Amino acid sequence: MEESIRKRVIIGSGSAAEAIFWANKDRITCFGDDEQRGKTMFGLPVIGIDEAAECYGSEAEYLVAIPSAHHILNRLPSGQAGRVILAHEALEGIDYTKFSYAKEARIAVDEVEQCVNLHRHMGDGVYIRSVDLVVTERCSLRCRECSNLMQYYHAPRDYRAEELLEAVEALLDCVDGLYELRIIGGEPLMNKAVYPLIDMLAQDERVRRLVIFTNGTIVPPQEAWAHIRQEKVVFRITDYGTLSRNLSRLEEALRQEGIAYDTSRIDRWSPCSSLAKHGRTPEALDAVFLGCCAKNLLTLLDGKLYHCPFMANAMNLGAVPPCGEDYLPLSDIRKRPQEERTAVMRGFIFDKINFATCDYCVGRPYGQGSLTPAEQAAAPVDYIRYEEE
Ligand code: SF4
Ligand code: SF4
Fold it and tell me: Whose CA is nearest to atom 7 of ligand 2?
């Protein structure tokens, strides 16, 4: 009896949430996801995570399907009847490869596997979902509201394959598991060094998946495909309409090469690219970080690991005061004894919530923004430069 009336809420809305739904489908009450709230999934409402916790309280079961879940667990109540169930428990013994997904099957199944493995290792070591590797400061577009701050670069540069490889090797020495290395820019395909880099990274068995984020303006040249044509490589394309002038040619080439890709179009952007000091209290600073949808987009730029692309590029541009506590210099961290290295990495990635650089950012709250995406700026945008201390 108790079993039939218990509320079950799936926390998340991605591929792992879909798998958990199919595994429990008649027994799910709703989905809890801050980004997708107000929508429906499988005919069920998607509500905010706090709203779900308030509505269903400690009697419900919360089936967690968000890969980087360490910042949301303490928002979920669990009492005598209810409990929080992580993805590796919810999908124990389930063959999730047979389900149908919104994304291409091999991408979706890979995402479910990532979520399961991340949850299994939540309490030990350094297992992380993804790191964004910035390979260039250049972009083929100049979006006025680029959240990666590309519009501020007046003399953008490409990073060399050797320095990028060195940075990734330092990163891999500091983690126990990394499920996805994302190649980003700017527009990563602006940097020709990216092709041999993809080849080199794909040979490293510690790199499980390589995702190229691109804006549909560039089709790799013929000679590049021998480097790109790797089982681990996936393209994630953003469709900016007519600005993505080579989108269909790129998609056609990827199909011909048998490379997995997905293309998405985003209707609205949040205004989150301005650089200005807000003077927040420590509590307000914590709140802006915890309420930010970009807070776990770990970013590797010039050998330093940051929590998001805004912090990485703002610091790289000199647009915020330098703050050594807001990033990890991985070439130093990798030299430390393993126990100390793990403690530093875990502390930075999973526990730290107070970042001085967040005070220069508006923040990126969950949910849809209000701006038309990809409006172009005529020239690089000026900003105040902070000198090194
Ligand atoms: S396409 Fe636009 S949003 Fe994307 S990196 Fe380039 S400038 Fe930024
Ligand atoms: S609020 Fe902080 S974590 Fe979020 S995008 Fe801004 S700088 Fe990054």
Answer: 358
